[in-house]
Write a structure and sequence with these properties.
Layout: H1 2-64, E1 88-94, E2 99-102, H2 112-125, E3 129-132, E4 135-141, E5 145-152, H3 154-229, H4 233-256, E6 268-271, H5 272-289, E7 293-298, E8 303-306, H6 308-325, E9 331-339, E10 342-350, E11 357-358, H7 383-393, E12 397-402, E13 407-415
Helix pairs in contact: 1-3, 3-4, 5-6, 6-7
Amino acid sequence: MIKSMERRFTAIAILVISTVLLVLLVTVNAIAIRSNIRRVDNALENLGFHVKDQNMMDFERDKDIGLEGSKSPPGEFGPPAHRDENRSFEVILDSDGEMVVSSAGPTNTIDESSALDLARGALEDGRIKGFADEFRYLVIEGDASTRVVFLDYSFDKRSEQNFILVSIGVYFLAVILVAGLVRVFLKPVMKPIREAYIKQRRFITDASHELKTPLTVIATNMQLIEMESCSSKWTTSVNNQVERLKALSNDLVVLSRMEETDLLTEMRGINLSDLVNDVAMGFEPAIEAAGKTFNCKIEEDIKIKGNYDSLEKVMSVLMNNAMKYSKQNGTVEVSLHKNGKNAEIKVANTTDTIEKGNHSEYFERFYRGDKSRNSETGGFGIGLAVAKSTVEDHKGKIKAISSDGKSLEVTISLKRINYEE
C-alpha cells in the first residue's frame, strides 16, 4: 500500500510539474513568435513609409531641375530604395490587378512572375498583413494603385523552429530532473507515513491475537453452562456473537498481512477453469436450497499464472456475497471466458434495488452495502477489500457494475498464459 501510494504521489507530482512546464513552454514560444511577427511588421511599415517618402523627395527634386516626367508622381510609387533588397521587395498593382512595377528581380530572392502571384494571392486573402509562402506582406492602398510590400520571413521562421526544438529538449530534460528529485525527496517525506502505517498494521495484528484469548474463554464457559443448564436462546446468541468476533479477528489478521505477503514468489501456472468450477459447484447446493436459480458457464482449459489458494479465496468471497445478497427466488450466475489476452470471471446476482453504474465503493475496507449492518447477512465489509488486493497483486482488475438497477455483476480480468503441465 505504501509503495503504491509512493508511485501515485510520484506520478501526480511529475504530471502537475510537467503540465506547468508545458504551459510555460507554449506561452514563451507563443510570446516569442508574436514578438518576432510584430518586429517584422514594424520593419514592413518602415519600409513602406520610407519608399513613399523617398519617391516624394525624388519627384520634387526632378521637378525643380525640369525632369518632371522622369519619375513617378507621389501617387504612383516607384521601386523601393534604401532597403535590404536581398530580403524585401514590393509589387505595385493597378485597379485591375495588373502589375505596374516590381522591385523583384535578379538582386532579390524571387522573380517578377512569382512576385506577381504572391501579390495577387495577398490581395485575394483580403487582409492587410499576412503570410505568403515564406514571406510576410503588408498591403498599402493608394488612390490609383495598391502596393504590396514583402519581407523574407524564412530566416525568422528557422529561428522560431530552432527555439521550439531547444525548448522541447529543455522540457524533457527538466521532466527527467524533476522525476529524479521527486523520488529523492519523497523518501524522507513518506518515512513518517510508512512508520505510522506499520504501527497501525502491527496494532491490528496484536489486537486480533489479544481478542482470541478472551473469546476462547467465553466460548469455553458457554459450553460448560450449556452442559450444566442445557442450551437456551441466550447461550446460542452468545455463541453466535463469539463466532462472529472470531471471524472478524481472522479477517483483520488477513487484511493486515496482505502487504507483508509476496504473492509473486508463490505464483505458478494454474488452470483457472478448474478453480472456478470447483468453487462454483461447491456453492450450488446451498444456492438451490435457498430457492434460488444457479447458472454456470465456464470455458474449458483457461490458464493463468497465479496463487491458487488466494484466487480460491477470492472466488469464495464472490460466490458467498452473490448467494447472500441475491433477492429471494433470485438468480446467481457464474461465467468464465477468454477476452483477447485476458481471462474474465463474472459473478452476477439479482437484487431488489441497486443504483445503476459503477460500485467501486464495495471494495473499500469495512464498507457494507447494508447500511443497517444487519448481522443476519454476516460479514464486516472486509472480503471484497481482500479480493481487490489479491487481484491487483496478480496484475489484474476487478470491478462491480449494475447495468440495469436490478442486478450486480462483479468482473475479474486476469492475463492468460500458455504453459506445459
